[in-house]
TrEMBL record, chain A:
InterPro entries named in the record: AAA+_ATPase (IPR003593), ABC_transporter-like_ATP-bd (IPR003439), ABC_transporter-like_CS (IPR017871), ABC_transpr_LolD-like (IPR015854), Cell_div_FtsE (IPR005286), P-loop_NTPase (IPR027417)
NCBIfam families documented for this protein: FtsE
Entry-linked PROSITE patterns: ABC_TRANSPORTER_1, ABC_TRANSPORTER_2
GO terms under cellular component: plasma membrane
UniProt function note: Part of the ABC transporter FtsEX involved in cellular division.
Subunit field text: Homodimer. Forms a membrane-associated complex with FtsX.
Family assignment from sequence similarity: Belongs to the ABC transporter superfamily.
Signal peptide region: none
One Pfam family recorded for the sequence: ABC_tran
Domain ABC transporter positions: 2-226
Any single GO BP term: cell division
Chief localisation class: membrane
Name under which the protein is recorded: Cell division ATP-binding protein FtsE
UniProtKB/TrEMBL annotation, chain B:
InterPro entries tied to this protein: ABC3_permease_C (IPR003838), FtsX (IPR004513), FtsX_ECD (IPR040690)
Record carries keyword Thylakoid: no
UniProt keyword annotation of Acyltransferase present: no
Organism: candidate division Kazan bacterium GW2011_GWB1_52_7
Alphabetical list of Pfam families matching this protein: FtsX, FtsX_ECD
Gene3D superfamilies per record: 3.30.70.3040
Family label: Belongs to the ABC-4 integral membrane protein family. FtsX subfamily.
Protein name: Cell division protein FtsX
Annotated localization: Cell membrane
Length: 226, 303
């Protein structure tokens, strides 16, 4: 259970988040929508401990994540899968190495990593591209590598920050379907997006944000912006 | 723990390979900086040796009165040898002096006509060599105040005073300025290396950010960069040593052998000096490579 409790974040005099409260239950699929500057990215940064909230607290299973000491943050991050709009793959490492890196970091043995990486690449449909470099792949393929990397720890919680922002509509749908599949396998998913078509068609919980505030939070939501 | 270091090393070497051009440029720049340091260290050595050679040539002659017997002269020689700072005392008899004079002027008929072997007008003398040209006056004074006063008519000190003064000043100046220059150059070399490594790491700052976001600890990210920096250092050291040796064989050795400091008592470029240079370069390269990488990654690790 992830709980945002009256979270406010200031950047100087600018309020990026203003008294935001909501909670996400295990296995839920939650879509975060809102125009640029609504506070989606700030919210995700807070969840990843990249930033600390100015007021309020964020708890995961009743633990306040911002009370973590700096040196424990890496271990905390390994429990959360993240997918970014700009993919954030290591350009000098192959697909398999990119996925393996997240596991290597945690000190897992090589044979276990190889097995796990192949399994996860199969899940996202990239088994035959394992030894390609990111620059040799299409946008959709790159995003699937990023999703594979996010999943390799079998996290209970996956955050996707505008994963379809740089993709064409067809590929965007592929990625969304992949996220739904991952959710159906038991992972909680938080999807931040601009994509009206996707939001309106998958019938999931939607949290609408605007100017740093939560303006609507509905079980079967719509995009609701012009 | 073993697996940690295996991965660190693998990541460092693959980082080096896959950033091919950048690594190569960094290595070359480091090589140049190391060469700068080495050439300067060598130059200092040559200057030091030259100054020693010049100092060895500075000596003083004490001319005996005509009445002095050889045994009196030999007693004074023994006394002079006891004085601190004196390295060598040579007795030059009147006859030796004449022989040397004739040998030096054998091409000048006119002089030889004037000088006849029977009427030797040249006095016997003691030639004294000292460890440090600054001591000459004191030593001469000490001899004259003692038994020497009665025996010695004249010293070469009066004639050579100006020359010795000049040589001493020049030697001191060269040594001081080469030390300052060496310091400045070493600082420049260090800054060049540091900046080069900073740039290579700057180009990979996104990589560092990504590593952090997938949960790598700071040291897991940092070590490969530090080892890569040290790897630059090792390769640069080897390159610069090879270049130095080639340069030594081609340029310096013939010069040293022929004239420059042939008067120095010991050979200047010994094996020991080369080993010292190699060790110096390696230590500088490893420390600077590693420390620069550490500092350069620090900045990008605050995610």
């Amino acid at each position: 259970m992830i709980v945002f409790d009256k979270v406010t974040k200031h950047y100087g005099s600018h309020k990026a988040l203003d008294d935001v409260s909501f909670s996400i239950r295990p296995r839920e699929f939650v879509i975060l929508v809102g125009p640029s500057g609504a506070g989606k990215t700030t919210l995700i940064k807070l969840l990843l401990c990249e930033e600390k909230p100015t007021f309020g607290r964020i708890t995961i299973d009743d633990k306040d994540i911002h009370l973590l000491k700096d040196r424990y943050i890496p271990y905390y991050r390994r429990q959360i899968g993240v997918v970014f709009q700009d993919f954030k793959l290591l350009p000098n490492q192959t697909v398999a190495e990119n996925v393996a890196f997240a596991m290597e970091v945690s000190g897992k043995p090589d044979n276990e990593i190889t097995k796990e990486v192949m399994k996860i690449l199969e899940l996202v449909g990239l088994k035959d591209k394992a030894s390609n470099f990111p620059r040799e792949l299409s946008g959709g393929e790159i995003q699937r590598v990023a999703i594979a990397r996010a999943l390799v720890f079998q996290p209970k919680f996956l955050i996707a920050d505008e994963p379809t922002g740089n993709l064409d509509p067809v590929t965007a749908w592929d990625i969304t379907k992949l996220l739904l599949k991952i959710n159906s396998l038991g992972t909680t998913v938080l999807l931040a997006t601009h994509n009206r078509e996707i939001v309106d068609n998958i019938n999931k919980r939607v949290i609408n944000m605007d100017k740093g505030r939560v303006v609507r939070d509905r079980r079967r939501g719509k995009y609701d912006y012009k | 723990m073993l697996i940690f270091w295996q991965r660190i090393f693998r990541s460092a070497t693959s980082g080096f390979r896959r950033n091919g051009w950048l690594s190569l440029v960094a290595v070359f720049i480091m090589t140049q900086a190391l060469l700068l340091i080495s050439i300067f260290a060598s130059l200092n050595l040559v200057i030091g040796a030259s100054i020693t050679a010049i100092n060895e040539r500075i000596d003083v002659a004490l001319f005996f009165k005509e009445t002095v017997t050889q045994s009196e002269a030999m007693t004074l020689k023994t006394q002079a040898e006891q004085i601190e700072g004196v390295t060598q005392v040579t007795y030059v008899s009147s006859q030796d002096a004449l022989d040397k004079f004739l040998a030096d002027h054998r091409n000048r008929g006119a002089i030889l006509d004037v000088v006849s072997r029977d009427e030797n007008f040249l006095p016997a003398s003691l030639e004294i060599k000292v460890t440090d040209p600054y001591l000459i006056e004191g030593i001469v004074g000490q001899i004259i105040r003692g038994d020497g006063g009665k025996l010695i008519s004249q010293t070469s000190l009066e004639d050579n005073q100006k020359l010795i003064e000049k040589l001493r000043n020049f030697g001191g100046f060269v040594q001081r300025s080469s030390l300052i220059l060496a310091l400045v150059l070493i600082i420049i070399a260090l800054l060049i290396i540091f900046n080069t490594i900073r740039i290579t790491i700057f180009t990979r700052r996104e990589e560092i950010e990504i590593m952090k976001l997938v949960g790598a600890t700071d040291w897991y990210i940092r070590w490969p960069f530090i080892i890569e920096g040290m790897l630059y250092g090792v390769i640069a050291t080897i390159l610069s040593l090879v270049l130095l040796y080639v340069g030594y064989l081609a340029l310096v050795k013939p010069m040293v052998d022929s004239y420059l400091i042939s008067a120095a008592s010991s050979p200047v470029f010994t094996l020991g000096f080369f080993i010292f240079l190699a060790a110096l370069q390696l230590v500088v390269a490893l420390v600077v490579g590693g420390v620069s990488s550490y500092w350069a990654t620090r900045k990008h690790l605050h995610v």
